[in-house]
Amino acid sequence: MEAVKWNGDSVTILDQRLLPSKEEYNTYTDYFEVAEAIITMETRGAPAIGITAGMGIALGAKKMKVSNFSAFKDEMNKIFECFSNTRPTAVNLFWTINRMKKILSEMNNIEEAVKRFEDEAVLILKEDIEANKQMGKNGSKFIQDGDIIMTHCNAGALATGGYGTALGVIRAAVEEGKKIEVFACETRPYLQGARLTTWELLKDNIPVTLITDNMSGFFMKNGTIKKIIVGADRIAKNGDTANKIGTYTHSVLAKEHNIPFYVAAPVSTLDPQTESGDKIVIEYRSIDEVAYIKNVQIAPEGVKILNPSFDVTPAENISAIITEKGVIEKPAGKGIMELFN
Ligand code: MRU
């Protein structure tokens, strides 16, 4: 299962809007279409957004027709700007753009720059898959045989280069022979849990049960859910973590019921530039995502609707942040800087 693929002169993207009904891939030859695919959530998930942007930038560089390096540089800066304006919350996007900006600053020859962008895009994908596998190994120690683990949104192969972050930890535990079961929250309004997490876990024969978001407290209180593991879109310096809307609510309930709450994310999701969660920009998406389910209007015309796409879980509610570089247990008061030293 590949969410996004580089073909040398085009980018192929699995259209996640159509899952689970249809598994369809679109191939793009223009960087602008790749940026559009991020905006419209044809592809989504913090690491996958970063990877896709890398490929889109490489594509833009490759297709560009300019006669001198100064014009090339100007056009590249426009491409960076275009991708910066796709989605604001997942820091992996800006992490990729900064890697590409650094390359541009080191170049003075178009052909060489085009080659470096392409190599970097391919490397970002490769590094992400390796990071997920290592994250899985680092996190599986928290999972015991017989556990029922709840997750929110989709932090799996579909949201990354492959294998997944939160689902990567689950996959690693399964590979170690642990018998576990996943409870997937449906994740209103975009239904990443119902449509994507269940789809990819079923494909891998990992036992999964779908619940609606508002059932999580019921299953925590009655002792069914033993652990919670989620991904992240941006982890601030103090460990506060932005993830899909609804994550914060689960974390508060987990605290109430003494259920360990883990965040799994690659280092590309850590943002030491942002001091704390209240500084993280939260994307608000179209109210149609709330008013409609699969083109069926479920709310009265004209009703006021809000649609924040992410919320912030304070570090105090997090038992451990699992990365490929290591695990930060009880991040409250410590933050993330130990992983950069
Ligand atoms: O709006 P989305 O689907 O891009 O949001 C995705 C999430 O919130 C994921 O949990 C997060 O990006 C981690 S993906 C490994």
What does this structure look like?
With 341 residues, this protein is α/β, with parallel strands linked by helices. It has two domains: 4-133, translation initiation factor eif-2b, domain 1 (Four Helix Bundle (Hemerythrin (Met), subunit A)); 138-340, Translation initiation factor eif-2b, domain 2 (Rossmann fold). Helices cover 38% and strands 16% of the residues. It contains ten helices and 16 strands. It has a seven-stranded mixed beta sheet with strand order 6-5-4-7-10-15-16, sandwiched between helices. A four-stranded mixed beta sheet has the order 11-8-9-14, covered by helices on one side. Helix 6 links the parallel strand 4 and strand 5 (181-185). The protein starts with a strand and ends in a 12-residue tail after the last strand. 49% of the residues are buried. The protein binds 5-S-methyl-1-O-phosphono-5-thio-D-ribulose. Residues 44-47, 90, 153, 155, 159-160, 165, 192, 231-233, 243-244, 309 line the site of 5-S-methyl-1-O-phosphono-5-thio-D-ribulose (MRU).
